[in-house]
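User: Fold this, then the next.

Assistant: Folding the first:
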Amino acid sequence: MKHLALIITFLAVFTSCSKDIEEATTTADYYGKWTLVKMSGSMINSVTTGTAMEWQESYLFKNDGTFEKSRMRNTVETKAVGTYTAIDYQDGKYLELTYSNDSEIIGSCYGNLTESLYFSAANTLSSTWRACDGPGLEYQKADSNFN
């Protein structure tokens, strides 16, 4: 009887934890505008935020599977568009972006028309560009009223 109670308790805890993890990764609301809030480099203490960042940037993810990326650098605005897909990997949820045309604002390790972002925390998207010596870029959701 003691073992049965232990097994039931273990299953109840395991099931509730699994449900929490699943909800956190599947209910992430990524539609809308995401704004760059932090940049970091490979050097220790090389973090910048706000107007001190080298550029200002945002993504607008629409319900129809398209996106627009906009970057403002030295008063020059550059935009790029494409499609995206949300993908669940073992280590978390990712947004895989495919651009319609080549652009200098594509932050990718591969030098092609694709870019990947992942949910590093609740309401925080991070670029995978850092994995190949690009800057660490973190975005936070600005507004959920864009469709």
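Now the next one, as you asked:
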Amino acid sequence: MYNASPPPQHPHSYPHPHPHPPPYAHIAQPPPFPVVRMRGLPFDCAEADIIDFFHGLDIVDILLVHKGERFSGEAFCVLGYPLQVDFALQRNKQNMGRRYIEVFRSKRQEYYKAIANEVSEVQGRSPPRRSIRRAKSIDKSKDSAEHTGVLRLRGLPYSARKNDLLDFFKDLVLSEDAVHIVLNSDGRPSGEAFVEFQSADDSKEAMVKDRMTLGSRYIELFPSSREELDESVSRRR
């Protein structure tokens, strides 16, 4: 039987193993940023309310959006995984108190833009993000409160660690053992912490940090006590 040899080919004429590779086939696409936007929140809404609303999901960060000194009723919530966005969207039009809440997909750029707006407003005004009447009543109670050397912090980023708080109070002498980050019932950071200073005078001096920012969040400081610290820490064990 006659076997014809194939005609010789030019070295550059052999077919490419993938003559038409699909577009972006070798480019790894990053997963979508896991953030949702909420609308219609009660005007007295706190971060704890949003954590309860999304119970069972991993909350990485919550950003309450303000207009001027008032809460706008909107917030951004960053979740632990992209898949959890779908679960968060299932809570759309569920109630928080008497209000039904709208939940939308959002984007990284919208979240970062909202952070930039919040930081800009906080740095450009004092007192930040509260009605004047409420701010005066809160400030008056803080000024008249007795200092015991313990402060309670509220509004911390959920990613905040002890070293972040040591840096926040870097002008005062603190040890790592003096910082207590409060966990919620699920064992996750609650956004609150207690700090034990060496003296009542030190804690009073530290109040100058009230409503200053840590990362993208402004932090509220309140005079507290050793009893409140022990109760809060033991309740979440």
